[in-house]
Structures are given as C-alpha cells and as structure tokens.
Amino acid sequence: MQWLGASVAWGGDKVSEQVVYMNDSAVINIENWLCQARGGNADALGRLLGAYMNYLKTLAHAQMDDRLKRRVGASDIVQETLLEAHRDFLQFVGKSPAEFSGWLRTILINNLKRAIECHLMTAKRDMRRELSMEDLKGRADQSAARLEALVAAPNSSVSSGILRHESLIRLSDAISRLPEEHREVIILRHIQGLPFKDIGVRLNKTSGAVRMIWMRAIEKLRETSASSTGR
C-alpha cells in the first residue's frame, strides 16, 4: 500500500486536504472469499469476516459518543456483529463486496441501536421513540462514504471497484494500528468530518495542537505504508 501524502493549504480557518491511499500486493481477495463463502466454504467465510473487523471498528467508533464508549467498547459491538453475520450469512442475498459491506453495516447499526437503548436510555423510555434507525443508518453510511473517499482507486480498470474496496480494508487496518490519540483525530477529522476547532473542544486541546496531532497521524500512516512495502 502507498500513501501519496497529505496536501494542506492553510487559508484562515479553511484547510484543503487530500489523503490518498493506494493498493499494494498484500493478499486480500474479498471477491474470491465472498464467492467461496457463498458456495459453503467455511474457511473463506472466516477470512472474509475477519478482513472487515477493523473497517467495522472504525465505523462503530465514529458513531459512539463518550457516554456510550464508557459503557461498551467498539470491539464488543463489532464482535457481536461478526458473530451475527456468521450465524446469518445464508440470509445475505447480494453478490458484490459493496453489497456485503452494506449488509454488515446494517447489522452493526442494529447492534449500535441496541447498545444505545440498553446503556443510555434505560431510564428514559420516552426517548426511545427519538432513536431512529434511519438516522443511525444515515450517519453510518456517511461515515463509510467519507472513509471510502480517502481511498484512491487504480486508473481505469474493469476491476477497479473491487480493488478500491480492498484498499478500503487496508486503510481501516492501517488506521487501527495508529496510537490512540492519532487514531481519534483521524476518525474525528476524516470519518466524522469535524473541523479542527471542534475536535479541539472534544479533546480539550487547541485547534493548533490538533492540527499537529493530525499531521503526525498522517506521517504514521505513511510510515506504515513504507514499512509494508519495504520502501
């Protein structure tokens, strides 16, 4: 994989940035695993679900506020999601990696909704009516779209959509390996789409300090890319 960098142009409070993630030769074959799993191959299903672990964890983390994070971890919600996906895989009727990731997100959203109701709304039954699956799905789909926007697909190829999807998996893995503070800033900035000023309020830091953390996080991702490709 190769990060082609982060171009940043400072102009007042506006920041123009682009983070690009490219493919490498790592063995990730989502389409093949999905095809084999649909044919009844249990090992392929295990590899397929395992490949999505950090992708789902990144999305779950972006949907959870601090109150919920104090009560349940994103890893717990993702583990439950993967167990349910394994149990209910025969109910998946799609064929493409994009359809499969959408199916996984639906299961994740259901589990997030259940966690919110269990941990945050037990004493406020009347608030349950305000918890909309459509709102949760909309936020999760928007986060997924922002994450995908960080991935650069190869130039005009018949399989570019599939390769782009596999790069998305690698990007999620790279984000998961960042130090906690770096990972938090990347998620808040790129997955939740928050400006540096708002991230600073969340983290009790100045916007300038957040920018520095963000730049170090990008550099960490570039180092991860370089080490994985031997460059």
Question: Strands, helices and their partners?
Answer:
Elements: E1 2-11, E2 14-22, H1 30-38, H2 42-51, H3 53-63, H4 66-69, H5 74-87, H6 97-120, H7 133-149, H8 160-176, H9 180-191, H10 196-203, H11 207-229
Antiparallel strand pairs: 1-2
Helix pairs in contact: 1-2, 3-5, 3-7, 3-8, 5-6, 6-7, 9-11, 10-11
Q: Which structural class matches the secondary elements?
A: mainly alpha
- How many helical elements? 11
Encode the helix/strand succession as letters: EEHHHHHHHHHHH
Tally of distinct domains: 1
* Average pLDDT metric: 79
User: For the terminal residues, how far apart are their CA atoms?
Assistant: 10 Å
Q: Would you count the extended β strands for me?
A: 2
Order of neighbouring strands in the sheet with most strands:
1-2
Biggest sheet features: 2 strands, antiparallel
Percent of residues in beta strands: 5-15%
| Poorly predicted residue ranges | 1-26, 153-158
Q: Report the helical percentage.
A: 55-70%
**Rg, Cα atoms, Å:** 18 Å
Dominant shape:
globular
